[in-house]
């Protein structure tokens, strides 16, 4: 290529970009995006995993819509799966079977769609835990936490509506459980159920309705929220772990262009590849085993997908006979209680940033990610929450635990019931102790260095182990964190201490009573003199 | 950045290879274990035995629990009228003689040959007639008129609530369970329906006709013979095993990828 040719080419691209820029003013956005920095700790990539599995869901889902037909018309099966030949079923189930057996690549796409859906929700969950334990939801990112929470709920809703579409025995049983829960709501339950199913359960309206929700409404809301989530992420920037040169005002890592873009592009294909690998090797939801939906049979091992499991488990954990009669109405506490517990749990999660800010009284902006140990109470609350969720989740598979470990189902349920209450308490206490212990160790390291393993005999005959001071980078990492103190219960303008202030004071004391403060400069100086 | 542990970048294919290896190991391990569990020793053939031989075998091996003349004791129910079908099922699936008292008879390798079991069955029949072993005709799943789809439907309606739609088994109350139904002899499936062992209901010929029983057998054998179309079936346990898989191998391998991507070249 000669120089003139190169120049002409150059001018062509620059012409093109000029053309675009004059009409869209996109260059500002491009350079803004290009300068955005992405931190380089692995846990910061979990959100991306969610994003990429969502892309996989969109692509495979589009393929599925070409062939899936949500109609509830009753037809005999005429596809190629022998054990269903001639069996009457809905067109919806028939077309889902056709996708699995008679459309090239259909089964693979179904499995990609379902596996990536499971991965999507799982990676959102893990991503939320990362954000929680590093305190990355604090001001100014509270709103983005709430949007993220909304995404989590939307993802579950997408999963649930999708699970119900094939109209096989499993999905029908799932709907039957939902129907039961809805009907358990006092006064309006039956009406809601009527409205939802377009008449008596199961009816023929529900699958087409869920389909519209699944492919139009929910994805539209999901994509809009996702866009907002990413926009706020760019505006607020990422948090980062403390380190030399890392301040509240900057983010250290690779700029999006070109290093990170290259990495992210590669990572996209890695995630996609992993999903393809799983989908081509491992069966998911073999709908042909379940047969068409029919309200009478129920299969052993009827469970929802994992992300709905906690709700199923909560229902199973209720002791039998929770029902009261009030003014001639039967209140099914067995359904209302778990719904209330789950509702409270979810509300606590959704509004946690505001709750914590209220307790700590902290109105500052935070851009540094906490190491989990440096906020022991929060970390302990997180651990307790995980245990609470996990016990409900495990309860959904109580029957499988019983058969696979040769245990009595009732026994398994009783143990889980006890764990639901005791687990979070023990987990809280243990985690807090461990976090504080780790903090003490950090302090020890900063002040006295780490054990070098070198034993020296002093002239006086005394043996000592030489302690090596940690280097400056490490010291920075270990000493830069916020130490909160309990808020003071100050009287308000009327000179009174309100009940709210008192509650807040005691919560704050509970939060920060036991604390380890970061090593201060003077302490450090002091320790240098000692050695 | 200074003073980082030397985390060398692995070969680009290492993770993929690891993933495949992991999958293969788990899959292989599972197959070995499930095959080992299903294995049963073939019994050596013996010459024709009679009801008298059956009585002798019975007195030596069963009378302690089921009593002389099979009237029953506190350790075992009476066997009068249970029929040769029940004896064949209990003995040839390795449930009897009972190994130890538990919530449910444990299965071992069969302790008797087919002839010895038949002789005991004949003896029990002489005490009071009950359902006999099925005719060969009802076990021949290649006969004309056998309808696998009908068998599958009957199975979903009558059996799946305990045994799971894919015959993977399920939990019942008080430590009892419905076993998985993979690779079970046609005669034993038939006899299980006919005699209803333990917590399983009896499906007599009015409930499920012999032809229909044959369809059920044909369906269960179809499942045994057809490979899982979607790949590894995770034990056909449904969404729980799928969730477990995505949280362990699935998300695990992806987290491994993120750690690898963010590690620095030295």
UniProtKB/TrEMBL annotation, chain A:
One BP term from GO: respiratory electron transport chain
As recorded in UniProt, its EC number(s) are: 7.1.1.8
What GO molecular function terms would the record report?
metal ion binding; oxidoreductase activity; quinol-cytochrome-c reductase activity
- Domain called Cytochrome b/b6 N-terminal region profile: residue spans: 16-242
- Does the record's keyword annotation contain Phosphoprotein? no
> In the record, what lineage is assigned to the organism producing the protein?
Bacteria, Bacillati, Actinomycetota, Actinomycetes, Micrococcales
Which enzyme class? translocase
SUPFAM superfamilies, per the entry: Transmembrane di-heme cytochromes
Membrane topology type:
Multi-pass membrane protein
Q: Which UniProt keywords apply?
A: Cell membrane, Electron transport, Heme, Iron, Membrane, Metal-binding, Oxidoreductase, Respiratory chain, Translocase, Transmembrane, Transmembrane helix, Transport
User: Under which name does UniProt file this protein?
Assistant: Cytochrome bc1 complex cytochrome b subunit
Q: Where in the cell is it found?
A: Cell membrane
> Which GO CC terms are listed, alphabetically?
plasma membrane
Its main localization is: membrane
Q: Which cofactors go with this protein?
A: heme
> Which Pfam family, giving just one, matches this sequence?
Cytochrom_B_N_2
Domain of life, per UniProt, equals Bacteria
Q: Which reaction does it catalyse?
A: a quinol + 2 Fe(III)-[cytochrome c](out) = a quinone + 2 Fe(II)-[cytochrome c](out) + 2 H(+)(out)
Transmembrane segments annotated in the record for this chain: 49-68, 117-137, 143-163, 184-205, 211-235, 267-288, 326-355, 376-396, 408-431
Automatic annotation (TrEMBL), chain B:
Taken from the UniProt entry, a GO cellular component term is: plasma membrane
* PTM field: Binds 2 heme c groups covalently per subunit.
Q: List keywords of the entry alphabetically.
A: Cell membrane, Electron transport, Heme, Iron, Membrane, Metal-binding, Repeat, Respiratory chain, Translocase, Transmembrane, Transmembrane helix, Transport
**Which of this chain's residues are annotated to bind heme c 2?**
159, 162-163
GO terms assigned for molecular function: heme binding; iron ion binding; quinol-cytochrome-c reductase activity
Which parts of the sequence bind heme c 1? 62, 65-66
Which positions, given as ranges, span the membrane? 244-262
Ranges of residues in domain Cytochrome c: 49-128, 146-224
Catalyses which reaction(s): a quinol + 2 Fe(III)-[cytochrome c](out) = a quinone + 2 Fe(II)-[cytochrome c](out) + 2 H(+)(out)
Q: Which organism is it from?
A: Agrococcus casei LMG 22410
Q: What is the lineage of its organism?
A: Bacteria, Bacillati, Actinomycetota, Actinomycetes, Micrococcales
Q: How does it assemble?
A: The cytochrome bc1 complex is composed of a cytochrome b (QcrB), the Rieske iron-sulfur protein (QcrA) and a diheme cytochrome c (QcrC) subunit.
Going by the entry's taxonomy, the superkingdom of the source organism is recorded as Bacteria
Q: What is its EC number?
A: 7.1.1.8
Q: What protein am I looking at?
A: Cytochrome bc1 complex cytochrome c subunit
UniProt topology in membrane: Multi-pass membrane protein
Q: Which compartments does it reside in?
A: Cell membrane
The record's listing under SUPFAM superfamilies reads: Cytochrome c
